[in-house]
Design goal:
Elements lengths: L2 H30 L2 H57 L11 H48 L3 E6 L4 E4 L1 H10 L24 H16 L7 E6 L5 E12 L36 E5 L2 E14 L1 H37 L5 H28 L1 H5 L5 E4 H16 L3 E3 L7 E4 L1 H19 L4 E8 L2 E8 L6 H8 L14 H7 L3 E7 L4 E9 L3 H10 L37 E8 L10 E10 L2 E11 L11 H4 L3 H4 L5 H11 L4 E4 L2 H10 L1 H4 L7 E3 H8 L8 H7 L10 H21 L5 H9 L9
Parallel strand pairs: 8-10, 14-17, 17-18
Antiparallel strand pairs: 1-2, 1-6, 3-4, 4-6, 5-6, 7-9, 10-11, 11-13, 12-13, 14-15, 15-16
Helix pairs in contact: 1-2, 2-3, 2-21, 6-7, 9-10, 19-21, 19-22, 20-21
Length: about 775
Amino acid sequence: MNAKTRFVLAVVMLGLLMTGPFLLTVGILWADLGAEERAGFLVALDRWLPIGGLITIIGLIVGLQLLRALFQQYVHGLLRMAETLRLMLGANRNFRVAPDGPPEVRELARAANDLAQQRDALLTDVEEQIRLAKATVEEERNRLAALMSELAMGVVVCNLDGRILLYNSRARLQFKALAQGPTTMSGGALIGLGRSIFSILERGQITHSLENIQQRLRKGSAEPTANFITSTRGGQLLRAQMAPVLSTGATGPATANVDNLPPTPPPGEGGDNVSSQAATAQGVSTPTMPGAVMQVTGYVLTIENITRNFEREAERDQALQSLTDGNRAALANLRAAVETLIDTPDMDLDYRERFTRVIADEASAMSERLEITMSRFADSLKTRWPLEDVLAIDILAAAARRIEDRLKLPIKNEDQDAGLWMRVDSFALIQAITFLASRLQDHYAIRELRLRLSNEGKMVFLDLIWSGTPVSSETLYTWELEPMNVGTETSPLTLRDVIDRHGGEIWYQRDKAAHNAFFRIVVPAAVVPEMQAIDQTRHLHSESRPEYYDFDLFAARDAEGSGIDLDRRLTDLAYSVFDTETTGLEPSNGDEIIQMGAVRIVNQRLLRQEIFDQLVDPRIRLKPAGIPIHGITEAMVKGQPTLDVVLPAFHEFCHETVLVAHNAAFDMRFFQLKEDSLGVRFTQPVLDTLLLSAVIHPNQETHRLEIIAERLGINVIGRHTALGDAYVTGEVFLKMIPLLADMGIVTLRQALDAAQQTYFARIKY
């Protein structure tokens, strides 16, 4: 029974209590009157009844309006105040009650604001103490995160369920490059916090490696590791090294519970189901000192993609085998012909010519086979020296410092693209640039050298520019073959060695219009860092450091399997918060999705680096009225993937998570209409922040997303873009979780049930 119903019943009861004694008194007097007195009373009543009835009706109307005003000012006003007080308690500490209404309510609002101000002062002091207490731990955590992000190897840390709780940028790029099919779109990466490593690597390999580590731990190994080679779903080969994450557990005798390992499922069964790994190594421990027990809480995987190296080695082996088999017979024929010629000096001229032709033919065939092999593997032989991906401007900066320090030659920079990456031997390339500068200074007395950087296709151009005497091509050719000696520093390499090592080129060119000349060094551009450049554009939506780690997931255990348990606490679940932009508001009448955006929430953190952001070609005309709202034009969606590609990719992105959206019924209707044609069904639970807002604040007049965000103290940025709305919705949802807990709604089932009781749950699209 709500407050309004209770208020009406109270008014009715009050009216009965007030009129009851009067009617009872009238009844008693009526009973004491005689017949003539009653007749006179009825005549008087008949005369005054219309006037009395009108007065009564007017009084009733005035009384009801007065009661309504009192209800709005006191009862309803106090209910709204109670909702805003709950906001001050948790979701928005800076929120204050507006002192409006009658004087008594305003005084209560001012008193509540004063109490909130005192509470904030106390909380600020407590938070400062907590911040100081956590400073050391947070510093160590950030150091580890920074170290991991800079490692050249891909590193992934998992808990015993196989849930990813840390990964670095190299791992992100590696697995993104390995993704096949629609998952290669933005947001379709196979890696993410809280996701299962078994969606990428074979479960059997992980289980077997853990068994080996447990055996070594039981034998007292100080550095238990395991190595294995596995393949991804796309057929790529990975070399992985596994090391356990050990932590000090409860004191007691050490045990090695190796026999409790779950059986490895047959191939193809439960590829993403991590529940069977939950018990793996749960009891594994190793004693470090009497009474202390080290327990395995997870494992670290260092991963390297060896597919290209394996293919090269296989090609080399094949070429070696081909040379061996092909030349064995040729050598035998050559040997036999030569021995025959030696043993028979007086051989007839025709026979001698025939044997000579055999020798020439076999030698020619061997030479041709060698030429073909050298041509086939020329690029591979040039680039066998270890090369690394570096920013081109970093190489030029290092070369400039070296030239200025060693040669005292001023350096200036011309046009330099800061986003260019190269795959080079950094030290050798800097030596080559310094060597050319020294030769120009020694032989042509240049006073200044300018460095320029550009690219064309898959090649990067490094230009060394000077003004003055031109250099002949013969001089450059001579320098190419000289050892790169600069001052007292000597090098066995020549300039040509360095150029060949990179599979590049160098040439001399004059710019007569600018009255200068330059050497141009051509080296290969890097491929992988281009992905990094794409990721850097997403930093606009992120904070200073990507959230690639969450150590609290060490304690997360999935005991119920890969399905989503409705009785789990809201704070323990992973979510995919999404939004769509559409051609219109009528999905059942042909409107289509033109953009999808989503962001993941894991361990109550909005992971701004793990997003899904994709434009969609709707294959229909966009409505002009909607373009000013969402800002998406016909040109922007033309040529983009269609929904039959985007929706399966989004389905994989939100796998094993609860869906969250604002007015989710609208977005889900688009998905439902495509179920039969695309074969993609979203079976996971869906939480709607519109309905949850009606649960938390039933007395508020509006539940629009921007109003809810303002109410909860959230800055709204990027509204009416799918990803921007997903960010705002995610932050709103995180603020709602403690407010729901204050109402006793702590599990997913309770939240779904409460949402279905609201009025907005009846809206259909």
